[in-house]
Amino acid sequence: MTQWQYQPAQDNDLPPRQKLMSVRREPGLPTLLCNQAWGVVSATLLKLLHRLNVTGRENLPPRGPFVMAANHCSHLDALCLAAALPMRLRHEAFPMAAGDTFFDTPAHAAMAALLLNAVP
Fold this sequence. Notes:
Elements: H1 16-21, H2 29-49, H3 77-84, H4 87-90, H5 99-102, H6 106-116
Helix pairs in contact: 2-3, 2-6
């Protein structure tokens, strides 16, 4: 049996703004809770307001890693792909977002990182 060892997060040494924009970001409990709550809200809104219908979810692998890609019709692509994921996989999704749009201000960066778990 291997002995447990404490290892601090890889992004521990980064300032808060850089931490949000880092690909080394390790989501913690607040990020997980925000991400899961936003996943439920956004999927519900997409179904009700935009009539999003997901087919073929059973074809997704039970665990990652895997890549999902969209034709990039709009900035809703990342939300739609996240809504297509089962809840058990949403916290493991890291959408690639346009850095100049979604990470241009600290508020945008916080929303993209906390709600979507996006990386620039």
